[in-house]
């Protein structure tokens, strides 16, 4: 049975590579990997780390690409590829526009869709944008829904998705973390006297004023707390780079670097004092590592970490971000409360569980 995994961005690669490794290990499955090429430099190091070679790359990325262009190019190029390859199942992950277009294309071709990381919701179509639309749409056309947690399953059930096609599998991000985080990792980016804040920001809806507010708060923190150093791997998006340069060019306590290799990033996360981010995946990783995260957004689809106490939504207003960061820097009890390691995302065997379910699906046993 031929299973084609289609994805295109860094986080999808990090969370799909463990699944692909598992697919490759099964005798009855032929695994085919198709990259959309939505990301380029940011994705390749992940494929290299996990030693996975793609069979196809649609190479769609352009500078400052639009959502329409990503969607149209993928739909158009998959038309020919799916007719040629005729996979028995298509696997997509999460909520990117690559995943959305691939699922839609599979649906148009009557090919069963398996959605890894199904059921995440904010029910706000503009936050995150366009991801909430993407994931709801993907779940509409999916034949197997791999929900990372019971909470995600409950969301799907509340939308009347058939219980027989929903499976709680854990999140494959934990499978990936198991292979990267290493206690003896030696971090050169900070010295012992520094408290390290790790910063990332890339959400489309944050580009513009919200991002400027975030960066102002970071500047204020480094001004008021000289023991703090901020490491900021800057997303490749030119719009983000422009704002970041504007705000941090003269701040030597904010170290802007290129996107990190995922091995380094996971280990730097593990060594950092706290994390400021609008990322989705980082919320899961930090929850499992027990690292406090202040979420630079108004919503989260990862309430498990909020319930566990590791994540806190702080929005994108300068003052609030500053005050919440200050609290974590000065209030030990609050810091300790948010640093408890909990893991709502499974034991690192999500990929195995997912592929077992796929095999059962092909055997007609679901
Ligand atoms: C995409 C996803 C988002 C996900 C994020 C993970 C959509 C709509 N957005 O957003 O859900 O959270 O990836 O990082 O699917 N660029 C490069 N090289 C790269 C990658 C990007 O130069 O390797 C630049 C290009 O100019 C590109 C721009 O960044 O046009 C934006 O990339 P895009 O994939 O459209 O948006 P992301 O913000 O990365
Ligand atoms: N990440 C990475 N290098 C970096 C920043 C992030 O490898 O410099 C990893 C991070 O560990 C997580 C994923 O990229 O697994 C998150 O990607 P991103 O924040 O771009 O997307 P999102 O999760 O919000 O979709």
Structure description:
- The protein has 15 helices and 13 strands.
- The chain is α/β, with parallel strands linked by helices and 366 residues long.
- The protein has 2 domains: 2-171 and 347-362, Rossmann fold, CATH 3.40.50.2000; 195-339, Rossmann fold, CATH 3.40.50.
- Strand 9, helix 9 and strand 10 form a beta-alpha-beta unit.
- The two termini are 16 Å apart.
- 48% of the residues are buried.
- The model has no long low-confidence stretch (mean pLDDT 96).
- Residues 9-11, 38-43, 61, 63-65, 67, 96-97, 130-131, 202, 204, 236-238 line the site of uridine-diphosphate-N-acetylglucosamine.
Structural class: alpha/beta
Might you state the CATH topology name of the largest domain? Rossmann fold
Number of domains in the coordinates? Answer: 2
**Approximately how much beta-strand content do the residues carry?**
15-25%
Task: Name the hetero compounds present.
Answer: uridine-diphosphate-N-acetylglucosamine, uridine-5'-diphosphate
CATH class categorisation of the largest domain: Alpha Beta
What topology, given as strand order, has the largest sheet? Answer: 3-2-1-4-5-6-7
CATH superfamily of the largest domain: Glycogen Phosphorylase B
User: Count the strands?
Assistant: 13
Largest sheet: 7 strands, parallel
Q: Regions with pLDDT < 50 over 5+ consecutive residues? A: none
Question: Could you say what the CATH architecture of the largest domain is?
Answer: 3-Layer(aba) Sandwich
Percent of residues in helical segments?
A: 40-55%
Compute the average pLDDT: 96
Give the radius of gyration: 20 Å
Tally of separate helices: 15
H/E series: EHEHEHEHEHEHEHEHEHEHEHEHEHHH
What sort of overall outline do the alpha carbons produce when their principal axes are compared?
globular
